[in-house]
Amino acid sequence: MPKAIVSMRAALVGLCVVSNLSFAAEPAPQVVKTKKLNVLFIGNSFTACHDLSQVVKALAEAGDPSLSFDVTTVLYGGRRLVDHWRLGTPNFVKIGTLTAAEEQATVKELEEAIAKDPKDKYAVAALGRHRDLSKNLEKMRKKWDLVVLQSYRDDAEGDKSRYVEYAPKYAELVKAQGGRVVLYETTPTTQNSEPLQAAPNPAVVNEKAKVIAALAKRTEAIVVPMSTVALRCQTVRPDLTLRYVKDAHLNPTMGYLTACTFYAALFNRSPEGLPINKIDDRPTRDGKPVLDPDGKPMKTIFSDKDRADLQRIAWEGLQEFRKVSADGSQR
Q: What is the number of alpha carbons within 13 Å of residue 234 lying toward its C-beta?
């Protein structure tokens, strides 16, 4: 595997992201010599849904055709950062320096956990993943430029939440590898399955934004603030829905909005004008379209208006988050 050629300092320059000292201040664009980013996504179905990492990759490479946005994922359904820690995911974070002995120790721990609880399907899945890593460690070595830490209902209790507790543990490992953390804040409880008649009360979202902003400052992280961006979408396009009716996951609109927010946050520029206009670009199955949980075709092609609106809303929502964050830090 080619070695990552962006150090943490270079990533700060090359990605043109917000300084951890002030979420309101934006650094001037720099000339980027590095044309490869190695990105690790850690999460659950809120990352797996709509193959989100690949949509982010498509947007990133559309924004700069000379860029190679190399994606790796470690995903377990419904799991949080605390669960990933138990399942050995930190080994993937430090895969560039991970020793064979450390990986064998993790394999043994998972084997012992399964012996105690054979029904622990997550440990079983993790064991298979780690056995593969143990056999192919040298081939799989990589240094991450960015490591995405997805939240999931573990960020709703303010400073006492598990996300706030565990994100810094991962950030320490990421920083030691020369990379930078991306806090992907999901918002399963505020996504609407029906069009809205009025915008939601922003108070809860803004309070959560301040907590995430403080965590980002503490960990020198980039933030993908989907509760704030979703609120922006619900305010200016209340006709759009952000989750399925028959399933609690983000629908294609929210999936695309999330990917656009990733682009805006990582590159500190608006995704407006990017040509990517579809999500779940899957082939038919037995000659029929693959259907989503609500019985509609999974593949979604956005109209020019919706694509432009969602791209703009992603950028506007990110700026709203930064404003709320800056206001909170001044108190």
A: 24
**178: burial class by Cβ within 10 Å (0-12, 13-18, 19+)?**
middle
pLDDT at residue 234 is higher than 60: yes
What's the confidence (pLDDT) of residue 14? 37
30: pLDDT strictly greater than 70: no
Residues 277 and 254: their CA atoms lie apart, in Å, by 13
Place of tokens 């790796």: 72
* Residue-range domains of the chain with CATH: 8-98+141-329 (3.40.50.1110)
Rounded Cα distance between 92 and 72, Å, is 10
Average pLDDT over residues 248-268: 98
CA distances from 82 to 107, 120, 158 (A): 18, 15, 16
Return the sign of the alpha-carbon dihedral for residues 289, 290, 292, 295.
Answer: positive
Strand runs labelled E in the chain: 36-43, 68-75, 146-150, 180-185, 222-225, 278-279, 300-301
